[in-house]
Amino acid sequence: MSVSKESKAFDYAKSPDGEDVFPKLAAIFKPVALTAFGVSTLDVMLYSHPKGYMQTLGRYIHFSWPIFGAATAFVLGSNIAGSVRAKDDRLNWFIGGMMAGSVYGVWRRTTVGGLAVGVALGMLAVGKKYANLNGTHLLYPDKFNVQYGGFRSGQQDWTLMKHRPGNWTTGEEGK
């Protein structure tokens, strides 16, 4: 019996709240890093225009730490709430969203802003947890239903000898 060494991506929603905290943090840090890099790059190129390497690095840190902090606060908050309450429900994710919003409040130094963003992120998290529990999707489906070979298809075949859909033939079979 051979053992497969392929690694499978960790699915955040498959394990209940309060378990697998470090794999959940690792799974969420890749999209968070890409988001933080994108937001920081947009700020540096389109808004702040820092002069020199140190000011540029400072702007990247200024925008990246709250994004990483909010993601970490969400994961830790929802998992701590799940382990303390011993339940896997939407309230845990609301608590995590509130904690993520509080990071925004600390970053912008506003209590009201942190509360408002916390409520908004908490409600968004409740919607996402509801979608996970019911097998639906909040924003987009897992697999898009597109026509094979269509203009905007992700399955476009640009090879010289591409597959002919349906019962099309080359005309050489009848001879």
TrEMBL record:
Q: Where is it located? A: Mitochondrion inner membrane
What InterPro entries does the record tag this protein with? NDUFA11 (IPR039205)
Superkingdom in the source lineage? Eukaryota
**Residue spans crossing the bilayer:** 21-40, 60-79, 113-131
Give any single GO term for biological process.
mitochondrial electron transport, NADH to ubiquinone
Q: Keyword annotations for this protein?
A: Membrane, Mitochondrion, Mitochondrion inner membrane, Transmembrane, Transmembrane helix
| Membrane-related topology note | Multi-pass membrane protein
Q: Mind telling me which GO cellular component terms the entry cites?
A: mitochondrial inner membrane; respiratory chain complex I
Answer whether the UniProt record assigns the keyword Lyase to this protein: no
Give the family this protein belongs to, as stated in its UniProt record.
Answer: Belongs to the complex I NDUFA11 subunit family.
Tell me what this protein is called.
Answer: NADH dehydrogenase [ubiquinone] 1 alpha subcomplex subunit 11
According to its UniProt entry, this protein's organism is Zophobas morio
